[in-house]
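Suppose you are handed only these lines of text.
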Amino acid sequence: MRRRVWSLALPVVALWCLQALPALAQEEADEAPAYSRNGADTCLRCHGEEVVGIFRTKHAQPNDPRTPFGHGQLQCEACHGPGGAHTKRPKKGEERTPVIQFGEGAVTPVRQQNEMCLGCHNSYVGDWHTSAHDDNEVGCADCHSSHDPRDPVRTKATQAEVCGGCHQIQKANMLQPFAHPLREGQMACTSCHSPHGSLSEASLKKDTINQACYECHADKRGPFLWEHQPVGEDCTLCHQPHGSAHPAMLAQRPPFLCQQCHGQEGHPSVPGLPSGLPGGTPSASLLAVGCANCHSQVHGSNHPSGARLSR
Ligand code: HEC
Ligand code: HEC
Ligand code: HEC
Ligand code: HEC
Ligand code: HEC
Ligand code: HEC
Ligand code: HEC
Ligand code: HEC
Ligand code: HEC
Ligand code: HEC
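From them, the structure of the protein bound to heme C can be written out as follows.
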């Protein structure tokens, strides 16, 4: 297995080696940490199978000088930093000089890891540096698998697994009986969220929660002749976007959902005492299971006599 991967990688590596001469010719400066002599070829003397997936990613485009393996670039060391000292055999009793490491358990501080990526991906700098992820020292490599050509976080079907590693509550909600089709791989967390941050609440892709929902549920946008005030305000007053145990991802079951805001005066919106008991009267409104059975147009109505949202 190991052999096969090598035989695939070698010719390609040889090609890069030729094209990357300028960078690799860099002299060993006195104090500045030095780069390895032969770039990726040096590294591949000791690192094999576990790293070669990177040659099948967009980072490995010899003809695109902006990529780490492009002409004149530093190859592995574009991300891992100068590796000259690391490639040398450690003195007795000493540890091998580390290169920049990424991901969980890495010795390199997260901000320094991220700088390696942001050096080329500076278009993210703005939003990233105001994001909750940056604030909490989440690394680019906590989400991205740079050596994996599939990069699970950018694949719809596997993304929720990556995010769910840290966001257990949302992951659990997604598995509730009523949820957006993330499990099925039809949607992803990034259908609503911007992973690199945004100026909106909860790093949503759109300016407001409702705008995020209208993107796919345009029929709920209105304007309606008869509006239901909370609907235009915030869909999450009634719905849990990550999933819930109640049909239509409701935060609670009617009538309780509705009774958070609607009192009992005038309209019998609480169960009457069972008719068998003294003083008990059955409530027609509640015998009909849920409020939405009569008030079926909970999102707003365009019917001339739809003021009660019932048609
Ligand atoms: C002479 C063999 C040798 C060479 C050449 C070499 N490495 Fe290593 N590297 C190791 C060993 C052994 C380890 C693991 C133990 C350690 O860190 O001391 C390691 C660890 C690493 C790690 C950390 C792995 C982890 O678990 O996080 C990275 C990243 C790495 N090397 C990258 C490189 C890069 C990039 C190059 C080329 C510039 C390179 N190595 C060249 C032997 C080598
Ligand atoms: C030497 C510059 C350079 C460095 C360093 C670099 N990248 Fe990139 N990266 C690029 C370029 C250029 C592209 C665009 C390739 C294209 O669109 O063809 C890219 C593409 C990507 C993509 C999209 C890949 C795809 O298949 O569309 C991701 C994700 C990414 N980089 C993440 C990272 C992360 C994470 C790091 C740090 C661990 C990093 N990059 C370090 C230059 C770099
Ligand atoms: C919270 C997880 C997460 C973190 C942290 C993260 N990314 Fe991403 N990144 C993603 C996802 C998900 C996508 C795919 C975007 C999409 O589907 O809309 C992506 C896409 C990209 C792309 C490709 C962009 C494109 O337009 O195709 C690049 C480049 C990239 N990320 C670089 C970075 C860099 C650099 C960092 C660190 C500063 C970083 N990412 C941190 C999740 C993350
Ligand atoms: C685009 C930036 C980038 C480039 C280029 C790159 N790496 Fe990495 N490397 C990473 C990141 C990020 C990780 C953390 C694990 C992951 O994302 O897959 C990593 C992990 C590693 C590890 C630890 C592997 C493990 O499974 O624990 C080694 C060893 C390594 N890289 C060596 C190399 C070598 C050798 C090269 C050149 C052939 C190279 N890297 C090129 C970003 C890069
Ligand atoms: C390594 C752990 C980690 C991973 C992986 C991760 N996150 Fe986070 N995320 C955090 C932390 C820590 C915070 C800040 C504290 C909090 O809100 O829980 C956060 C916050 C958030 C927030 C709230 C943002 C805000 O502005 O309030 C959203 C939304 C979010 N993450 C979405 C995602 C998505 C989508 C993914 C996958 C693409 C993801 N996260 C992957 C750790 C992670
Ligand atoms: C249908 C749109 C949608 C999808 C898909 C979605 N979210 Fe959210 N998410 C929201 C909205 C809206 C909010 C803000 C209101 C709320 O917290 O209910 C939010 C809030 C969050 C928060 C912040 C919670 C807090 O208490 O501050 C995190 C973290 C988060 N989402 C993670 C995720 C993760 C991880 C996924 C994928 C498993 C995901 N979201 C999928 C719409 C979505
Ligand atoms: C990227 C598109 C997309 C976005 C954005 C989106 N949804 Fe959805 N929504 C869907 C899909 C697809 C379904 C599943 C439809 C089906 O199964 O018939 C769905 C289903 C629903 C359902 C349940 C329908 C049912 O019959 O059980 C509710 C409620 C809902 N979404 C509310 C929201 C809210 C609230 C938001 C904003 C926070 C939102 N959606 C954002 C695509 C989206
Ligand atoms: C006042 C509470 C409330 C608010 C606010 C609300 N909904 Fe609903 N929604 C409901 C109820 C109740 C149902 C179930 C209706 C039924 O059982 O017939 C529902 C059902 C849905 C459905 C599935 C059935 C259908 O009609 O397509 C979607 C999608 C939906 N809502 C999206 C939204 C969106 C998007 C918003 C924000 C613009 C929103 N809802 C705001 C109460 C609300
Ligand atoms: C977050 C608070 C909230 C929730 C939850 C809520 N409503 Fe409302 N509802 C309002 C407000 C505010 C009005 C406007 C009241 C007014 O104009 O006097 C309203 C108006 C109405 C009206 C029209 C009443 C009139 O006098 O014009 C009906 C019918 C109604 N709601 C039914 C429901 C039903 C059924 C539910 C549950 C599915 C529900 N509401 C959930 C806040 C809420
Ligand atoms: C059997 C059908 C039915 C059910 C079930 C029902 N309603 Fe009504 N509702 C009506 C009718 C009819 C009106 C108009 C009454 C009027 O104009 O005097 C009304 C009026 C209202 C109004 C307008 C204000 C008022 O008191 O006149 C609100 C708010 C309301 N209902 C909320 C609810 C809530 C909340 C529930 C569930 C707990 C519910 N309704 C269940 C038929 C129903």
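What can we learn from it? Residues 222-294 form one domain. The chain is about 30% helix and 0% strand.
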